[in-house]
Design goal:
Elements lengths: L4 E6 L7 H12 L5 E6 L5 H13 L5 H17 L8 H17 L6 H9 L1 H16 L4 E4 L18 H18 L2 E5 L2 E3 L5 E3 L5 H12 L3 E6 L20 E3 H9 L10 H7 L3 E5 L8 E4 L9 E15 L7 H13 L6 E4 L3 E7 L2 H11 L3 E15 L3 H7 L3 E8 L3 E8 L9
Parallel strand pairs: 1-2, 1-7, 2-4, 3-4, 7-9, 8-10
Antiparallel strand pairs: 5-6, 9-10, 11-13, 11-14, 12-13, 14-16, 15-16
The structure holds aspartic acid (ASP) and magnesium ion.
Length: 432
């Protein structure tokens, strides 16, 4: 009989130090009779630190090795808290770190995104080796799986696109067998492999998506994301008081929330789960007994207002130079350029001769877009904006959210209100 498989995903915050890893082991010990595919991210803020290494190497600042050494030392310090001195995990992890050193020893590659993926993904490779090593050390037999052997992607570096039929075949020919040998199989989030066997990442915060890929291919019974919050909340608790946990959500509501920038789950996570009706639990690794949030095929109920704020947005004002209307062919041309330069449109509006769009403020990508537009359009950019989305809003709430803000554009639909805002400049005496 086929085993019932659960998929668990633990993010960087859950494995940020030795106590975190012990806590993860403790949670897993309660599921020792289940067959679990465990997906783990890089520890704590490792991915950010490795991005700094890549930038230093690309810009030849001369500090790349030093920054990399600091990342290594952080990992060794954690390992010393988990393992005896002569444990064979030390040379294993060291060998993995050496792989990026080879890249750093050479001239920076011309293809930044390719180089980025070869260095940054080391974070997941070492974290999973350490956590699997620790589980085995305490007697919870765990097989370490290289996700690059089973997740196939195209070569869009830093944003790999999954080749589903190949991935489906690889996962099913390997993972169920491994889960027969051992109840726990542990692998990396965020990482896949191209057909030439190069490492490719799936985009920042992509580990949730990896877990959803495994869930889909394995027909998992459920997927659980273990977080440092009690579940999906009505707003970010770092920005708002009195937030409450949503006990249940429909896939539809969850996908809308993540689309508008709720960072609790990676936006690509919901679709594979919805397609197979696999329930997604979002639970706390700090209070693992709590119910968390369950996301399923539920019929939508009455949700409370849900507020999502996406920072670091830019508002672009694009208008045609010759006064021709922004319609038909202009729009399709504009959309194709946004796609080409991988600029994600969060909100848009068009008038007779102008087109307004709110996009993430990624200066490099926008520079390329502006170059492509400059012959036919004038473009202006307003930086430092926030995109505020309120689902299930009521008017009084919107008014309170506008306090101390300048609203640049807004739009209200029956369920969703959105506005692009900037903080009101503080008037100082000498300005008056
Ligand atoms: N470690 C990667 C990141 O920080 C992937 C993830 O955490 O989901 O973006
Ligand atoms: Mg995450």
């Amino acid at each position: 009989m086929k085993n019932i498989i659960k998929v668990f995903k633990f993010g960087g915050a859950s494995v940020k130090d030795a106590d975190g890893i012990k806590n993860v082991a403790n949670i897993l010990s309660k599921f020792k009779d289940d067959h679990i595919l465990i997906v783990i991210s890089a520890m704590g803020k490792t991915t950010n630190a490795l991005e700094e290494v890549v930038n230093a190497h690309a810009k030849k600042t001369g500090t790349a090795h030093e920054l990399y050494e600091a990342v290594k030392q952080q990992h060794y310090a954690i390992m010393k808290n988990l393992f005896p001195e002569n444990h064979d995990i030390f040379p294993i992890v060291n060998d993995t770190f050496v792989e990026a050193e080879w890249v750093l020893d050479e001239e920076p590659f011309e293809d930044y995104d390719y180089m980025y993926d070869q260095i940054v993904t080391i974070g997941e490779l070492v974290s999973t080796k350490i956590v699997a090593g620790y589980l085995n050390f305490i007697g919870a037999t765990t097989i370490w799986l290289d996700s690059r052997d089973v997740i196939a992607s195209d070569n869009t570096y830093r944003e790999g696109r999954i080749i589903w039929d190949k991935t489906m075949h690889l996962i099913n020919s390997k993972v169920p067998k491994l889960l027969e040998q051992s109840n726990f199989v542990l692998t990396q989030g965020f990482i896949a492999s191209t057909s030439e066997n190069f490492t490719v990442s799936l985009g920042r915060e992509g580990s949730d998506y990896s877990a959803a890929i495994f869930s889909y291919c394995l027909d998992a019974e459920s997927m659980t994301i273990w977080k440092d919050v009690k579940g999906v909340l009505t707003a970010d608790p770092r920005m708002f008081e009195n937030v409450s946990k949503l006990d249940r959500l429909s896939y539809k509501e969850a996908i809308e929330m993540t689309y508008y920038g709720a960072t609790v789950i990676h936006p690509k996570t919901i679709k594979p789960l919805q397609n197979k009706g696999i329930p997604l639990y979002v639970k706390s690794f700090i209070e693992p007994e709590g119910d968390g949030t369950i996301i399923t095929n539920d019929v939508d109920t009455n949700y409370p207002p849900i507020i999502i704020i996406e920072k670091n947005q830019a508002l672009l004002y694009i208008s045609s130079k010759d006064f021709s209307f922004i319609a038909e062919h202009h729009l399709s041309h504009l959309f194709s350029l946004f796609d080409k330069y991988r600029i994600w449109i969060n909100m848009m509006r068009n008038t007779a001769i102008s087109f307004l769009v709110c996009v993430p403020n990624q200066p490099e990508r926008l520079k390329n877009l502006f170059k492509a537009l400059e012959a036919d359009f004038t473009v202006a950019k307003e930086e430092g904006c926030e995109l505020v989305t309120v689902r299930h809003y009521y008017p009084g709430l919107i008014e309170s959210l506008k306090t101390d803000k300048v609203v640049l554009i807004d739009e209200s639909g029956s369920k969703t209100f959105q506005m692009v805002t900037k903080n009101m400049p503080i008037m100082r005496r000498k300005d008056i």
